[in-house]
């Protein structure tokens, strides 16, 4: 494949795809580790309940939807630790739901214990997203619908979805209009998840926030990075503060909340109505307990032993087995990535980690757990520290000519909304 370089610094591929080629790493400071030490005591943080239509959220803390992570077993564990917040299901592809894809339908399931059934939809075609919303309403699948306009993954953005979509204001507005209209009939609040923009030359968050507010969204969540920054560096919380100042609806802040003190600091710094937790809770669902205590003004924090962590692992394995209708093999395979996160920082050795990755049943997992020292303390060096992909960025892949205009042409819509069987699969 060959590329040509445009004057704007873009590489345009012969496959009719636009690829942004620019430095992606942010130079934002991490306020916990890079900022100068504060000499005076921090101002106390107060946070109030948030009302989303008919839904009261007593403590506005959100488990952000994460693909392959926030199915109902993980949500249940997080909610058991945490406050009465929003624990959002992983992203459901609208076309897959309309096609009655079995995996999409499985991901729409909620446990009886979940207090608020929050479901996130993703799509590019307004008509298909509307159909998916209609299914959610007619089949009573959820109490709250979130729309994904924040995903930075290339396979999503190259089709104009996720964080690429707000650049096309007509498409962004139409999707929200249609979903709000359908969900409004059932008094189901709709919210939107966005990023700062495609890159800092193509920011969209303020305009997107206003459109979401105008079209009836009950709240907006801002991940304070651009698509180009992906998960690199530290998110720029000042942009959350800008959006708070610009809107009248609640704004939830997202990005680099690794511990309870980060949640407090984000609210203190930005004035956001609540916080959304993503990678910070991977392998640490008790982070929600820490945040619950922090917002209550308490110093209590969870300090688990390896034995405590192993009990969470086994409970997670059992819930996943139920999720997969008794299929232990599928459950344990799903659990593997979580085990890597649960054990992160513990000096258990490579052979132990390898053995867990080879487990095929609940008995296998239980057997490996018996080889661990239950008295081992959670390591200080990883407490409240970044997890997952923290220094990682990608080129931004967009539909060909995507940045030429802020609205879609007839030809672009025909290309975007064509019959794409991949869009109905997982």
From TrEMBL:
<dbReference type="InterPro" id="IPR013785">
    <property type="entry name" value="Aldolase_TIM"/>
</dbReference>
<keyword id="KW-0288">FMN</keyword>
<keyword id="KW-0285">Flavoprotein</keyword>
<feature type="domain" description="DUS-like FMN-binding">
    <location>
        <begin position="63"/>
        <end position="368"/>
    </location>
</feature>
<dbReference type="InterPro" id="IPR004652">
    <property type="entry name" value="DusB-like"/>
</dbReference>
<keyword id="KW-0521">NADP</keyword>
<keyword id="KW-0819">tRNA processing</keyword>
<dbReference type="InterPro" id="IPR035587">
    <property type="entry name" value="DUS-like_FMN-bd"/>
</dbReference>
<dbReference type="GO" id="GO:0017150">
    <property type="term" value="F:tRNA dihydrouridine synthase activity"/>
</dbReference>
<dbReference type="InterPro" id="IPR018517">
    <property type="entry name" value="tRNA_hU_synthase_CS"/>
</dbReference>
<dbReference type="Pfam" id="PF01207">
    <property type="entry name" value="Dus"/>
</dbReference>
<dbReference type="InterPro" id="IPR024036">
    <property type="entry name" value="tRNA-dHydroUridine_Synthase_C"/>
</dbReference>
<feature type="compositionally biased region" description="Basic and acidic residues">
    <location>
        <begin position="24"/>
        <end position="33"/>
    </location>
</feature>
<dbReference type="GO" id="GO:0050660">
    <property type="term" value="F:flavin adenine dinucleotide binding"/>
</dbReference>
<protein>
    <submittedName>
        <fullName>tRNA-dihydrouridine synthase</fullName>
    </submittedName>
</protein>
<feature type="region of interest" description="Disordered">
    <location>
        <begin position="21"/>
        <end position="43"/>
    </location>
</feature>
<keyword id="KW-0560">Oxidoreductase</keyword>
<dbReference type="GO" id="GO:0003723">
    <property type="term" value="F:RNA binding"/>
</dbReference>
